[in-house]
Design brief:
The complex is a heterodimer of chains A (114) and B (221).
Chain A lengths: L11 E3 L2 E3 H4 L5 E3 L2 E3 L2 E3 L16 H12 L9 E14 L5 E16 L1
Chain B lengths: L16 H19 L14 H10 L10 E7 L1 E4 L9 E7 L6 E12 L7 E9 L7 E10 L3 E7 L11 E10 L10 H4 L9 E8 L11
The chains are: A mainly beta (114), B alpha+beta (221).
Amino acid sequence: TPTCEPETPLCCRRDHYVDFQELGWRDWILQPEGYQLNYCQGQCPPHLAGSPGIAASFHSAVFSLLKANTPWPLGTSCCVPTARRSLSLLYLDRNGNVVKTDVPDMVVEACGCS
Amino acid sequence: QGTGAGCPSCGSPMVATQVERALVLELAKQQILEGLHLTSRPQIIQRPPRAALSRALRRLQPASVSPASGEEVVSFATAVPVTGPSAAACSSMLTFHLATPRAHHLYRARLWLHVGPALPGPLYLRIVRWSSGRRRQGSRTPLAEHHIDTPGWHALALPSSGLRGKASGVLKLQLTCRPLHRNSTSLPPLQRLLGTAGDQRPFLELKIRAKEPREGRAKRR
């Protein structure tokens, strides 16, 4: 998935790095210092629908068949995450205990058209 | 909301950079709190000393990743000597404040103690769980017995089943020690044997995993 450039109107991944210092949360989040908050943005013209998209599945196959047999597209196709990964966090809870946990699906790695 | 019509992923017009940055920071807060099942950022009542924190973090194996949707917790103890007519000379009470457990399953617990150089010889250490009950002295549940014969850090395994329960999240462990060999010299108070402050503060290392749905019910085979 391309990362978003100003001239890229198509579906892409927009990268943002969030430093916990910016949130004023460095006092209770010990590690990491920040994380990638990416999200998907851009247009999905009909010929990109379902490629590769998280809907690249049975639904997408059926959707393509319908599309092929219907001259007009059904509904709109959106730019959505197709791959995510977890974020490992080390933080202090209210009692001052150190907690280490993996938060699933926190970082968007790839985008596609549904 | 407020960014104009439509959603950014379906081709709406770009937002101004400042507005987008503010949105991203707000989204990050929501995402982190939701991921940690918190409604707001924790207001830390008592921050552990930096030295204790760094030592404990070294115990959390960087390579050991907690199981999916699981946690590893390090909880620092406050230690007070046990007094009273029936209290053994070598006895101490450790108090931990654990988060009230969500639907999690504690499957491993270790108590880390630092024994100082004043250890006169091998000692026998008994750990019981103390809970306030109807009786004035409270009730004691034996948890573990260990032999300690060298100074330094010791990781003492505790039965995770003995630590579950108590919605209050307050866990009290009473430690009692005596010489391992009956004819050896008597022991100084446990407070002088055990590190209780700074980077020698005792702490619990807990490994928790999310409960499977409907866990706890007997599985028919």
